[in-house]
Amino acid sequence: MEFRVLGPLQVVRDGREIPLTSGRQRTVLACLLLRAGRLVPVTTLIDRLWGDDPPSDARGTLQVHVLRLRRALDDPTVIGTRPDGYLITAGPDDLRRFDELTARAERARRDGDPAAALKALRDATSLWRGPILADVASASLHTEDVPQLTERCMKAVERRYELELLLGHHETAVAGLRTLTAANPHREPLHVLLMRALYRSGRQAEALAVYDRAAAVLRDDLGLDPGDELQRARQAILTRTDTPARTDTPARTDTAAPPAGAWRRLCQLPSPAGDFVGREGELARLGDLLDGDGPGVPVVTVTGQSGVGKSALAVHAAHRLRDRFPDAQLYASLTGRDAAEAASDLLRVLGVPAAEMPGGLQARAAMLRGRLADRRVLLVLDDVAAAAQVEALLPGTRGSAVLVTSRRLLTGLPGNRIVRLGPFTGDEADALLRRLIGDARVAAEPRAARRVAAACGHLPLALRIAGARLAVLPSTRLDAFARRLEDHRRRLDELALGGLEVRAGLRAGHGALDAPARRAFERLGLLANADVPGWLLRLLVGGDEPRALESLVDANLLHAGGADPVGEPRYRLPALTADFAAELAGSPRAPGNRAALARVVRALAGTAAAARDTRARSSNDLPVDDPVPLPRREAPMTGDPIVWLAAHRALLGQVVEQACAAGLLEEAARLVDLVVPLLHRQVAAASLRRLREAVRDAARAAGHEPIMWREEYGLGILSLYAAPHATTAGTWAACAEAFERLGMTRELTYALSTFTFVRVTAPAPGDATAPEPSALAARALRLARASDDRHAEIIALAARADALAASGRDRDGLTTARTALRVARTLREPHFEATALTRVSRCSLTLGDVDGAAEACTRAMRLLDDLHDRRSAAWLLRESACIAQARGRRGEAIGLAERAAAQFLALGDRHGHAAASATLADLSSRRGQRFAPHA
């Protein structure tokens, strides 16, 4: 089967075209073919099919179109299905052939064979059959995808006619160029070529008439004056200085050689970017390093991630330094080339005839050193892949200098001084956007402009593409464009225009890696936006890959992020690189990915279990069983285990989300149930909520009710710290009902006890359906004692003490609290003991036993100090404030209440902060503060 896109969409099998009568099917196929080999998200296909007005069941309708398309193609394997989209592995055959021919033409051009280059380009342009995908009705496809492909074809056409004129085919070129300019009246290079073809055919008046028509069209249609190139062509024709090139020898304008043995001053540097901004610090540093005050030839490498602007900086710096290197400023791009080719080009430009060119690298390198001896020459080597390429081209004497750009660090290059180039600062990114789209547009939406810059990773290439797209869409709001860029699934698709594409540089960097590093990079895509410790890389790859991490850092695909709070080194994929890695990683459910995620989840769960074993058990979180042994040494936990887990909580979030996506639901649930109880008394609840919500939502989707309701319970506990308790009553009622229905007796005991606490702190007066706290607590106690669960019994006794105190039975509440205390001491569970002591303190204070309350409060505080439980300690600070007030120590009471409020605020505990603030506001009154127990 053969696919063709350079014209109307065609599918050909065995020489016969397969008709696709459905316009929707053609749109789906075209979109997949233009991204062959890459996952096309469902959202992208829906956008291509329906734009801003998709049907209510767009996803289902898309599935129907894909099914019918497979039937039409009579090959169900052509289009693959993934959880988030579709992909087609077979790309357009005409486009593949087009790319092969244009690459062949470029090689022939570099080798000085314009005739071979012209033949390849004629064959390539003959594949272009007319308007691209003209029979595919998709507005977004034709505004976002087709223009890039059309631009590639137009560039090839222009290069072809440049060679036609170079080889003297002036008359034959006129007819084709007339057709092209008529079809593309705003494309100035075509008018320039037609003018030169006419003039060199002896038709000066017609050539000047072409200029007049082009100028009129540009003014009338676009309000623009003719560009510099068009005006120079006109001037050359008027002054008769545009002479035909000779056709008996290949013309290589970039390497035209002077007479053998002669030296001429020359500058080969590309033109500096007209919109270059910022980088003043880096430019100054390059100037200092290239001064050459050492014994050898200064070699400076500008390195950084793809798209960071290495080449632009090097060219700009080289132009600034021209006066320091008056003999020559040479430039060689090593993209896809070896050092021998680059040496040959440099020697030719320095006057060595082709007939005298040595055959091997070493001989060419020696001749190059000879030609540069005792000269002051700046040599710019762009896009170097390895240190050996630079070593072969180094001048041999002082006075010259070498400026290199490379994705790699080139640490093996002797004497190399490295300048790491990072993304733009916010001000530099803003300055570039202003140059590209105008000050007024940025000033009108400054926040959106900053979001665009951030979504571009502050990378110059990405910003340039974004600016170019916005420039041709003057009515598009920056806010709308920023939202599109902030969608990680489509961001790299958005950052492509014509020949510029962020993904291309990333693909080249990835392709240059060895197999272990490529595998490591792709697996890192599973956790693309997290700070990753080094040990995790080994787990992801599934083996001991000590050099993979070094390779990724050396290639600027992975950045060292310093040390985390426990001193462990961390690494991070840059933003757009992370998107590319995620593309390569594919679905978390792929067998290799699922196994890698399972290793990571088990290692982290083992680490959390080890941390749990060093800590006293939390009193209000559901217990976690270990159905299978967990590894305890996979993750090198250093220092305090709670601090270690807190330092890795962002990583934990990504691991949990990906594990759920991979179908590792039970493993993810166990990890979350281990981690959250360890952290929720130390860190703000918001990040921990995301962990529980991810597992809950995945369990709901999978129909796994036990896990879903355990996570609902955990979310309810977190909500106690963030919302008024009255708003959580429904959660506890639902959890209790679900646990009873599912036969989860242990979980039901905890839910009833916590429900009691909520009903005490948030009464529902007048609601006859609301269960009484005493009834809830009594049932919880019966269940706990029937199951012989002593931990659950303590929680139920504490709940009963709360309920008794709330009904005015403080002495009975004190007796119950002391019973809970005795049970906790028999279990030697300090957290449960502290829970009981807080009830003893509160009931004693209400009964007027201030000393008894103070003693219980102090003992509980000591226990919590050992447990590092900041949240419960804040509640005891508030309790201590009430005790100090009862003793008449108002100043001390205010200080304790202030400390409690500050601690709650730091933890993001809005309920606790409100309670402490109320105590602080009215320390002189017991009104409204009689019963405020805490979990």
Automatic annotation (TrEMBL):
Which SUPFAM superfamilies does this chain map to? Answer: C-terminal effector domain of the bipartite response regulators, P-loop containing nucleoside triphosphate hydrolases, TPR-like
User: What residue spans carry the region label Disordered?
Assistant: 612-632
Q: Which residues does UniProt assign to the signal peptide?
A: none
Start and end of every OmpR/PhoB-type domain?
A: 1-90
Tell me which residues form the DNA-binding region.
Answer: 1-90
Keywords assigned by UniProt? Answer: DNA-binding, Transcription, Transcription regulation
Q: Does the keyword Transcription regulation apply?
A: yes
Query: Which family, according to the similarity comment?
Result: Belongs to the AfsR/DnrI/RedD regulatory family.
User: This chain belongs to which protein, by name?
Assistant: BTAD domain-containing putative transcriptional regulator
What organism is listed for this UniProt entry? Actinomadura miaoliensis
